Amino acid sequence: MKGNRTQRKSAIGENPQHQAYHRISRWIMGLVMSCGLLFAPVPASSQGIPSPANPPRLVNDFAGILDQSAAGLERLLRAFNDSTSNQITIVTVSDLGNYDPAQFAYEIGEQWGVGNRKYDNGIVILIKPKTENGNGQAYIAVGYGLEGAIPDAVCKRIVEDEMIPFFKQDDYAGGLLNGLKVILPLAAGEISAKEYMPSSGGIIAVFVAFILIVVVVSIVSAASRKGRGDRFGGPHDEGVGSGLGTWWLLTSAMNGGHHSGSWGSFSNGSGSFGGFGGGSFGGGGAGGSW
Amino acid sequence: MKKNVGCIVAIVAVLAILAVWFVKMYNGLVTKDEAVSSAWSQVENVYQRRMDLIPNLVNTVKGAADFEQSTLQEVVAARAAATQVKIDPSQLTEENIAKYQQAQDALSSSLSRLLVSVERYPDLKATQNFRDLQAQLEGTENRITVERQKFNQTVQSFNTSIRRFPRNIVAGMFGFDKKGYFKANDGAENAPVVDFGTQE
Predict the structure, then answer these.
(1) For A48, which DSSP code?
(2) From B81's CA, which of B72, B74, B147, B173 has a CA 20 to 30 Å away?
C-alpha cells in the first residue's frame, strides 16, 4: 500500500501545472488508505480471549480435547443453526488467563458476536479441562434472546448434572452431547425450562413422548396412504411434526458417537457455516467446576 | 448587480450548509443521549432483578433452623434502602449515580455476608432450592457487571462527544451535561457471590 502511494505521487509530481489534479488525487489516496484500514485485521482487543477461527467454526477445540468428535459436533451444531438460527458454539481452552469462566465465556460471545444480531440467540459453551494444577471449569453463557428459554438455574443443572459427570472421566465429547441433549430442545422451544427442571426424568418423558408421536404419526400417515407396503414410513416422513427436528438431529449424532466412523452418514448439516451473526450477551448463564 | 446576486447566493448556500450541519450535530447528540438512557434502564433492570430475588432467598434461608436473624434483617433493611434510591434518567449526574451505587453496594455487601454465613449450614446449601437461587444470584451479579460496563461505555462516548469542538458549542446551547460513571468498586460488589459457587 505504501509503495503504491509513493509510486502514484511521483507520477503526479511530474505534472506541476495540474495542482487541482494533485489535490484531488491526494484526497482519493486518503480515501483508499482509510479503506485499507477498514479491511486491516482487527487486533485482538484483549489479551487471553482467542479470536474466532477463519473460516469460522462452531466447535473451537483450542485445548485439543475433542479429537475426532469435533467434526460430528460441528455438523450437529451447524444443522441446528440452519434449522433454528440459534448459534451454539463450543470453545475449549487450556487456560483462562485472568478471567473467571463467566467473564471469559461472555467476552467470547460478545466479541465473536455469537447469535443473530436481531434475536441475540447465541450460546457459548466454554470448557477448560482439568489439569494437574487447575480445576476443570465449564460454563454456559446465554445470549440476551435465549435468557428466557434457558435460565441460569437450568444452565447450572445442565453443567453440574449432565456434563460434569462425563467430564470427570475425561469424556468431553460425551458430556457435551449429553448437555446438548437438553440445550437444543430448550433453545428450540420444544421443551420449557419447567419441563426440564423438576428432575432429569422430565426430559426422558419428553423424549418418550416424541418417540410415541413418531410412531403414531407414522402409522396414521401410512394408513392414510393406501396401497403401500411399508407401514412404518422412514424417518423422513413428511407427517412427522416439526418439533422432531432436534430429536432427529440428536439421535443421528448420538448413533454416530457410538459407532465411531459413522459420523459421515449424518448428512443433514453438511452445509457450510456462514459465520457469526453479531449477537449480544448480557451476562446470563451459569457454570461449574470439578 | 450581477456580482451582488452571486454574493447573496453564496451566503445563503453557506448558511444552508451550516444549518444542516448544525441539525446533524444536534440530532447526533440526541441519539447518544437516548443511548445513555436506554443503557441506564438496562442497569436498573438488572439491579431490580437482584432485588426481586432477595425475598425468595430470605425465605429459603429463614427455613434453616436458627439461622442468625441479624444477618437476614440487615439484608432486608439494605434492600428497602436501595429501593428508595431511584434516578430520573434525565438526571444522570455524577452525584446521583454515586448515590445509587452507594445504596446498591450496601446491599451487595450485606448479601455477601449472608452468603458467607450460609457456608455454615451445609444442609441448607445442599437443597435444590438454594442451589437454584445461588445460580440465579450469580447470574444476576454477572449481568450487573456487564450492564454497568456497557453503561460506562455509552456514557464515555456521550461525554467525549459533548466536549469535542465544535459539538461542545451545540451541547452548551441545548444544555447537554456531562453524565456520571459507575466507579470501579473496592471488591464489595463482585467478590463473594462468585466465590462461594466454586467452593466445595
Answers:
(1) T
(2) B147
Give the residue numbers spanning the domain of A109.
59-198+243-289
Torsion angle defined by CA atoms of residues A226, A227, A230 and A233, in that order, rounded to the nearest 10 degrees = -30
Angle at A20 between CA A14 and CA A22, to 5 degrees: 40
The C-alpha angle B186, B191, B193, rounded to 5 degrees, equals: 140
Residues of A in contact with B144 (CB under 8 A): 283
Residues A145 and A8 reside in one and the same domain: no
CATH number of the CATH domain containing A113: 3.10.310.50
pTM, two decimals, is 0.70
Q: A178-192, pLDDT tens digit by residue?
A: 999 999 999 988 777
**Cβ contacts (< 8 Å) between B134 and chain A: which residues?**
156
| DSSP-based three-state secondary structure for B151 | helix
Mapped onto helix, strand or coil, the DSSP state of residue A168 is coil
Would A100 be classed as within a structural domain?
yes
Tell me whether residue A214 is in a domain: no
- CA A223, CA A218: separation in Å to the nearest integer? 8
CA distances from B187 to A78, B146, B190 (A): 41, 16, 6
Beta strand spans in chain A (E):
59-61, 87-92, 122-128, 137-143, 281-289
Q: Which CATH fold would you assign to the domain B2-198? A: de novo design (two linked rop proteins) (1.20.1440)
- Give me A261's grid cell: 466412523
pLDDT, tens digit, 9 for 90 and up, residues B136-176: 999 999 999 999 999 999 999 999 988 888 888 888 888 88
Q: What is the ipTM of this complex?
A: 0.77
User: A-B interface: how many C-beta pairs under 8 angstroms?
Assistant: 53
Residues 6+ apart with CB under 8 A from A265: A252, A256
Give the residue from chain A lying closest to B134, CA to CA.
Answer: A153
How many angstroms separate the CA atoms of A38 and A1, rounded?
Answer: 13
User: Residue A281: its chain B contacts at CB < 8 A?
Assistant: 146
Query: Exposed, middle or buried by CB within 10 Å (0-12, 13-18, 19+), for A21?
Result: exposed
